[in-house]
Amino acid sequence: MGIYKDLKGKRVVITGGASGIGFATAKRFVDEKANVVIIDWNQEELNRVLATIPELKGGVHADVSNPKDVENAFKKVDELIEGIDILISNAGISFRKPFLKIDYEQWSKVLRVNLDGMFLCAKEAIERMKKQRSGVVLLTASTNGIEGHSLYADYNSSKAGVILLTKTLALEFAPWLRVNAVSPGYVLTAMQKAEYTPEMLEAVNSKIPLNRHAEPEEVASLFAFLASSEAAYITGQSIAIDGGETAGPYTPIDE
Q1: Are 230 and 196 contacting, i.e. CB atoms less than 8 angstroms apart?
Q2: Taking Cα atoms as reference points, which of 221, 220, 212, 211 lies closest to residue 188?
């Protein structure tokens, strides 16, 4: 059951929509009765999600770092839902590796997907939104783009770029377009579980004031709020959803 009545019938495109935060967000916007199309590079996962959420208006196979793929994907979006009101550009990748072991191929791949992909998808979406003089663009950044984290030099750099891209677009297209970044901290996704052992996850949780990772559905709730008219005066922001992680150093205090 939806919470935000104005999201009903909105045309929503979600990249990276076949897994993790993107999948949870697709489910949430379907619950809000929006017309949702997901874009993902993984055809197998795309097929699974389309079978799992039959209310989706469609799924498009595309690599967001490939300009031609993105162009064709949005043409397919036009066919499926006749335009776009809300873009949630969420597709991203990460690798856990010391800086001196990151080769240029990996660096380039992470930047292409995480930053170039945001540029390409936002450009296609805004070109369409400009004709109707309305829309919302939401980009998935990260707390890794706000403060330094070891072993993620490429990922951190890409997400810092996403935050400044967000602010720039918000300024260029105000007042008719709202653009915000959602900056999750640690989220318990399949990607996170693949990179961290249970012991590593527990060690991370002990340093988070709320003592746990976020659930993907909690991030999806923030996307829904920011896309709705309830957030009509919020633009150009990077909004952290991190359990207090970036508030400062955390040391449990016995009461």
Answers
A1: no
A2: 212
In a domain, 165, yes or no: yes
CATH classification of the domain holding 119: 3.40.50.720
**What would the pLDDT profile of 46-95 be if each residue is shown by its tens digit?**
999 999 999 999 999 999 999 999 999 999 999 999 999 999 999 999 99
- Percentage above 90 pLDDT, the chain: 94
The tally of domains found in the chain comes to 1
Q: What is the pTM (predicted TM-score) of this model?
A: 0.96
Any domain includes 121: yes
Q: What is the Cα–Cα distance from 195 to 200, expressed in whole angstroms?
A: 9
Q: Which one, of 84, 81, 82, 160, lies nearest residue 124 by Cα? A: 84
- What's the pLDDT tens digit per position in 243-253? 999 999 999 88
Residue 54 lies in a domain: yes
Beta bridge partners of 224: none
**What residues make up the domain containing 88?**
5-187+215-241
CB 126 within 8 A of CB 173: yes
- Angstrom distance (rounded) from CA 128 to CA 196: 40
Q: Is residue 197 part of a domain?
A: no
* Strands across the sheet containing 35-40: 58-61, 35-40, 11-15, 86-89, 135-140, 177-184, 238-241
Active site residues: 155
Report whether pLDDT(1) > 70: no
CA distance 33 to 50: 16
Q: Are 181 and 238 in contact (CB under 8 A)?
A: yes
